[in-house]
Amino acid sequence: MGDIATKEVFEWVSNGPKIVKASSTVCRHMDDVVDHKFVQERKKKHGVCATSVECYMNKHGVWEEEACEECLQPRDVPMALLMPPVNLARVMNVFYKDGDGYTHAGGPMKTFISSLLVHPIPI
C-alpha cells in the first residue's frame, strides 16, 4: 500500500479497530445466516456448536434479522486502509447471497471466479 502503510497504521490495525471487527462480523453473519438451517441439521447429527447468529440472538434477546444488521462508520484513518475490510464484507455478499458459495463453490461461484481470473474482460 505504499507510503500509507506506516508503522502507526500497523499499530492501529493490530489493536482491532471497529471497522476490521465489523467487517469480520459481517462476514461471519453472512455465512451463518445463509448456513443457519444447514448448520442446525448438521448440529442434530454431529453436535456442531451454535452459529454467531444464535449467539447474538441469545445474548441480546433479538430476532434473527436484528442479529444480522451491522453498521460500518468511517474512522480517522485513510480510506485506502478502510476499504480492504469493507471490500471483504462486500465479497462475502457474493459468496453467500444465493447460498453457501464458499463451501459449495460450483455453479455461479465457479462462473464468477472463472470470469474474473481465467476469462477476464480485456482492457
Automatic annotation (TrEMBL):
<dbReference type="Pfam" id="PF03936">
    <property type="entry name" value="Terpene_synth_C"/>
</dbReference>
<feature type="domain" description="Terpene synthase metal-binding">
    <location>
        <begin position="1"/>
        <end position="71"/>
    </location>
</feature>
<keyword id="KW-0460">Magnesium</keyword>
<dbReference type="InterPro" id="IPR005630">
    <property type="entry name" value="Terpene_synthase_metal-bd"/>
</dbReference>
<dbReference type="InterPro" id="IPR008949">
    <property type="entry name" value="Isoprenoid_synthase_dom_sf"/>
</dbReference>
<protein>
    <recommendedName>
        <fullName>Terpene synthase metal-binding domain-containing protein</fullName>
    </recommendedName>
</protein>
<keyword id="KW-0479">Metal-binding</keyword>
<dbReference type="GO" id="GO:0010333">
    <property type="term" value="F:terpene synthase activity"/>
</dbReference>
<dbReference type="InterPro" id="IPR050148">
    <property type="entry name" value="Terpene_synthase-like"/>
</dbReference>
<dbReference type="GO" id="GO:0000287">
    <property type="term" value="F:magnesium ion binding"/>
</dbReference>
<dbReference type="GO" id="GO:0016114">
    <property type="term" value="P:terpenoid biosynthetic process"/>
</dbReference>
<keyword id="KW-0456">Lyase</keyword>
